[in-house]
Design goal:
- Its EC number is 4.1.99.3.
- This is Deoxyribodipyrimidine photo-lyase.
- It comes from Shimia thalassica.
- The protein folds into three domains: 134 residues, Serine Threonine Protein Phosphatase 5, Tetratricopeptide repeat (Alpha Horseshoe), CATH 1.25.40; 118 residues, DNA Cyclobutane Dipyrimidine Photolyase, subunit A, domain 3 (Orthogonal Bundle), CATH 1.10.579; 111 residues, HUPs (Rossmann fold, 3-Layer(aba) Sandwich), CATH 3.40.50.
- Helix 16 links the parallel strand 4 and strand 5.
- The chain is globular and about 65 Å long.
- A five-stranded parallel beta sheet has the order 3-2-1-4-5, sandwiched between helices.
- The N and C termini lie far apart (57 Å).
- Helix 5 packs antiparallel against helix 6 and helix 11 packs antiparallel against helix 12.
- The protein is mainly α.
- The longest helix has 19 residues.
- The chain has 19 helices and five strands.
Length: 417
Amino acid sequence: MTTTEDVYADLLGHPETVAFEPTRQAGLARLDDFASRTSAHYTASRNYDLGPTERSTVSALSPWIRHRLITEEEVLAHTLARHSPNAAMKFIQEVFWRGYFKGWMQQHPSVWTGYQSGLRTAQNGLERNVHHNTDYQSAIGGRTGITCFDHWCHELKETGYLHNHARMWFASIWIFTLRLPWELGAHFFLTHLIDGDPASNTLSWRWVGGLHTKGKTYLARPSNIAKYTRGTFEPIGQLAQTAEPLIENDIHPFVPFVPSQSPIQKDFLFLITEEDCQPETFISGTPKDVVGLVSPREADQSAKSATFKKGAVADAVLRLGGQENATVTNDWTSTVITAAEQAGTSQVLTAFAPVGPSATKLANLQNVLAQEGITLHQQQRPYDTITWPHATKGFFKLKKMIPSILSDLGVSDAQTF
């Protein structure tokens, strides 16, 4: 009997399936392949999810952009070299959504801690309620009986990727039809997505549930699913027909964004993390050595996600002339201390890590290194320092500033809009 897992194993070898190789070279090749379709084709087809063997409707660049093997600025420049700003505006806006989410959560950091707290509460609830846990296990096992949802569940686990529209449908069904805590669903995505980003993932789930834009929810409808899968799925009678907004008691205060810039010209140890695997494009100076650090695969990280992260960091380290293999360890502290001693420096430089697991690790590392007389510096990309200050409310505020931001980045002249 052929199982869904067997089907996806076959699909991974299909010639039209996007190969998510964790190297800059592969990311550039995908960017070049998609660049010609970033105008009218993308605008008309981007909402269609035609499955893993047909990704021409979207860029599928997110795994490389997430770890900055290729950067948002690079994608924008490549696009505008082929199309006018107006022709490619829908794609350009989608690129800026990532910056919006990062900037917004950076300025509302309690959203991340609140999500983590809610996740722990939800996980503890599974241990106390056997029926609730059964529903959850059916959901993450793709055994709900809702064909489209189960299909996307297996696709996510087998490929590490989902079309953005499918992510929205999946989250809506999870929250409003299956009635499961949104934090568990967000965690399931972060576990398996090779492009899983703490800000984009957390805020997208909150948006679907009515928490990000208060009271505004996203309801998955059979007719919409049928239209944008071209009839592959039409879950009539299987989905919730209403979507009452989720509520929370927490008030997430606004924390003004302050750029983090600690330039060093020489004699520093370069630290590469999964947050930025192309730091050489904005950090000057010649490092005495380069060290890559990634966390080993744990219970909350799938093999595909862990492999892509490790490969991305290793690719960056090799390009910069560092060690042959990125160090895979939870003990970032002793690794960095030893590397700094061997390099004969007390200065460590890394790309800025926005709110999320990497930022927490670096904050802890910074405190311990300080006790050893070692200073950890973080430097931020101009793209972030220019974009994030506009991510204080809804996306529309940032959207209005896109021409100005592109001009400030030197990517496009604001007068061309």
